[in-house]
Write a structure and sequence with these properties.
CATH superfamily of the largest domain: Medium-chain alcohol dehydrogenases, catalytic domain
Order of helices and strands: EEEHEEEEEHHEHEHEEHEEHEHE
CATH architecture of the largest domain: Alpha-Beta Complex
CATH class of the largest domain: Alpha Beta
Structural class: alpha/beta
Shape: globular
Strand content: 25-35%
Low-confidence stretches: none
Mean pLDDT: 96
Helix content: 10-25%
Distance between the termini: 10 Å
CATH topology of the largest domain: Quinone Oxidoreductase, Chain A, domain 1
Length: 296
């Protein structure tokens, strides 16, 4: 089978499509024939060596939508089931950017019925990150939340999920994104900067760091999206960062919200698996609205 890997760290030119053995599922694992797999910023970080692994062949890709192709023992999934999953791992020999991938059964959920595999592939990593970041903030209905990068993949899911929890959301994004961000459920919108402070919490999907921390009230909460990269606490503000957890049960709930029309999946562009390096180059250009998706 084909698999997208890096054998040396660097730019998009270091992304290779190689031949690899088809993986076999073990106990409490399934093999998925990949129909679509999103490309995320974390893949660019892995490619650049941010997470280590020098000297190893590293497989790329975390998100997957596809069809169960083989099952190990102790699993209720069946061959032919349409599924989505999060294949967590910074440094792994194979990722989801491949023809087949093996994942633990507890990372898997039934695929959405209302969107195709390309759109479904944009859900697991970004929506789980948003949901788990909101958990860290411990907000109750009526409290105020600022989401930075509110038009981005994680930020947009965060706005929708927070609004659904009854939280008063302000979305920070580029001026041209106001209509979109408000359509997600944001009560207020800020372009480029925020002219007021005092939010109960900030979910910093744009990775602004200390400037975003300044918008939190004394004793409030700040959640970043890069593990261990949150700014130091000031003014009694709790600071932390989400490290996404594969969670099939939670993913199944997010799928239900997609099918109910509560969550909006967004695809910016698709690329053939063999065009993985081209997709990485497009990601590095920036300005992508929605996710780039690889299709084997």
């Amino acid at each position: 089978m084909r698999a997208v890997v890096v054998n040396a760290f660097g730019g998009p030119e270091n992304v290779e499509v190689v031949q690899a053995e088809v993986p076999e599922p073990g106990a409490r694992e399934i093999r998925i024939k990949v129909a679509a797999a999103a490309l995320n910023p974390v893949d660019a970080g892995v490619r650049a060596g941010v997470f280590g692994g020098a000297g190893k062949r590293i497989g790329l890709g975390w998100d997957v939508a596809g069809t169960v192709d083989a099952v190990g023992v102790a699993t209720s999934w069946r061959v032919g089931d349409e599924v989505v999953a999060l294949d967590y791992g910074m440094v792994k020999p194979l990722g989801t950017h491949a023809d087949y991938v093996v994942v633990p059964t507890d990372a898997v959920a039934k695929a959405p019925a209302t969107v195709d595999a390309v759109h479904a592939a944009t859900l697991p990593l970004n929506a789980l990150t948003a949901e788990q970041a909101l958990d860290l903030l411990e907000l109750t209905p009526g409290q105020s939340l600022l989401v930075t990068g509110a038009a981005g993949a994680v930020g947009a899911y965060a706005v929708q999920l927070a609004a659904r929890r009854g939280i008063s959301v302000t979305g920070l994004a580029r001026e041209g994104d106001e209509e979109f961000v408000r359509s997600l459920g944001a009560a207020r919108f800020a372009a480029g900067a925020v002219d007021v402070a005092g939010f109960d919490a900030v979910l910093d999907a744009a990775v602004l760091g200390e400037p975003a921390l300044a918008w939190v009230r004394d004793g409030g909460r700040y959640a970043g999206v890069i593990p261990q990269a949150q700014p130091a606490s000031v003014r009694g503000v709790w600071t932390g960062a989400v490290e996404v957890n594969p969670d099939g049960a939670r993913l199944a709930e997010l799928v239900r919200l997609v099918d109910a029309g509560v969550l909006t999946t967004r695809v910016a562009e698709t690329f053939a698996l063999d065009e993985a390096a081209k997709a990485h180059a497009r990601l590095d250009e920036g300005g992508v609205r929605g996710r780039l998706v690889l299709v084997p």
